[in-house]
Amino acid sequence: MTRSNDALFEGHSRRVASMFGRIAGWYDFLNHFLSLGLDMYWRYRLVRFVRTGDTGRVLDLAAGTLDVAREIRRQKPDGAVLGLDLTLPMLRRGLGKLQRHGETQILPVGGDATTLPLPERSVDCITIAFGIRNIQPRSDAYAEMHRVLAPGGRVCILEFGSGRNRIWKGLYNVYLKTILPLTGRLISRDAEAYAYLAETIQAFPEARELAGELLEAGFTRVGYLPLQSGIVYLHVAEKAAEEKGTPPDC
Ligand SMILES: C[S@@+](CC[C@H](N)C(=O)[O-])C[C@H]1O[C@@H](n2cnc3c(N)ncnc32)[C@H](O)[C@@H]1O
């Protein structure tokens, strides 16, 4: 990768972090409001695919206000969760929720998904909800996920489908292009953030292409599942388990 590419991606991360920093206070409310509460069901479905193992740790990337991390703890009370995000004001909102609920097994960590501050093979499972769309380059994030996953570990991705597909006879696409950015702007008073949301959904690759990217990054057993007619997709990919050595002769 060239120096100018690095600078471009750094600039992108800074812009994304500043935007989420501005809307952190409205983020949860607008999520529930604009999705008519479906976002909570989608996170529940994501976490159903989480599989824990020997490390006892799950990493939630682009963890935001920590709703996925809390859902992981609800469904898998035995594991600890690291919730990593670029935007500290988002994590701070999440931390408030942890404190209110006396949750001590979720650790919020500031960091970038493209350079994870974790050793190789240190987590059993990685989740990322509505985060991969914001990360550039995605290939760096996939490489890091692959590095820190234990052999046989799993990545579970929840993301919008490509907004280029017509859904519900085009009604959803009209919502995406007009109602969503307008409502987001009126409530959060941030024109850029909700226009950005609509634009990135429309520019996002189709599920099949995303599956191809995961295979290219070295994952095996890649699959995906549409929810709500493909408004969102769940993607699951696994890192190959280690070959067991031939048992010694006795
Ligand atoms: C739409 S929010 C999703 C938050 C949360 N996962 C949820 O389900 O509500 C996207 C999050 O991705 C984070 N993000 C964007 N780029 C990132 C990166 N390179 N590394 C880590 N987090 C990133 C943003 O700071 C933001 O909190």
From TrEMBL:
One of its GO terms (biological process) is menaquinone biosynthetic process. Its EC number is 2.1.1.163. It catalyses: a 2-demethylmenaquinol + S-adenosyl-L-methionine = a menaquinol + S-adenosyl-L-homocysteine + H(+). It is an enzyme of class 2 (transferase). The keyword S-adenosyl-L-methionine applies. Keywords: Menaquinone biosynthesis, Methyltransferase, S-adenosyl-L-methionine, Transferase, Ubiquinone. S-adenosyl-L-methionine binds at T65, D85, D112, A113. The keyword Zinc-finger does not apply. Pfam families: Ubie_methyltran. Coiled coil: none annotated. GO terms for molecular function: demethylmenaquinone methyltransferase activity. Pathway: Quinol/quinone metabolism; menaquinone biosynthesis; menaquinol from 1,4-dihydroxy-2-naphthoate: step 2/2. It comes from the Bacteria. PROSITE patterns: SAM_MT_UBIE (PS51608), UBIE_1 (PS01183). InterPro entries: SAM-dependent_MTases_sf, UbiE/COQ5_MeTrFase, UbiE/COQ5_MeTrFase_CS. Methyltransferase required for the conversion of demethylmenaquinol (DMKH2) to menaquinol (MKH2). Belongs to the class I-like SAM-binding methyltransferase superfamily. MenG/UbiE family. This is Demethylmenaquinone methyltransferase. It comes from Desulfohalobium retbaense (strain ATCC 49708 / DSM 5692 / JCM 16813 / HR100).
